[in-house]
Amino acid sequence: DSGVTQTPKHLITATGQRVTLRCSPRSGDLSVYWYQQSLDQGLQFLIQYYNGEERAKGNILERFSAQQFPDLHSELNLSSLELGDSALYFCASSSTQVHEKLFFGSGTQLSVL
Amino acid sequence: DQQVKQNSPSLSVQEGRISILNCDYTNSMFDYFLWYKKYPAEGPTFLISISSIKDKNEDGRFTVFLNKSAKHLSLHIVPSQPGDSAVYFCAADHTGTASKLTFGTGTRLQVTL
User: Which A residues in the span 60-79 are in contact with B, Cβ-Cβ below 8 Å?
Assistant: First the structure.
């Protein structure tokens, strides 16, 4: 158990809809990362938050947004969903700022039908 | 632009033999490398790392080798055990950038009896 909690584990929705993925980091970790893993793809970095503020942005679509709340949990919002958004979305947390060792949650499997 | 590449999607090795997983990178600014292991329905877990000032790092049955001139690293598992069957991701980091790991696409290792 990594200590990172993601909910829900599975999500099935239709094109055009909006969903919210939730992540609770390990106790004490200030950084939260979101990664997307599509079929046969590596883990694609989406966005990082540190103590409530956006720290780094990767290949995140404009239809996607995220935030980190004062209690350090984070939410990833995906809107106007398309079939291609179907993927495994991982949240990870870390406490260090140099040479990150990330602790991953078990992911949310999103299926857009 | 795939900066971290794992060209072998899968590898099958007999129990007790050596498993060698390879990873190539293109960005010469990367200076820290990590391997993660992922079991089905779980998030990736950190396995071993190496700094670019070293060419080898060992942890029990796991050894990572780094060849900076070839921009190549490898993970050796000796001896391989059935519990090692998983997907292995190579990841790279660049100190000084907004902290985020760049992952390869993964290699699925199957250790057979």
Answer: none
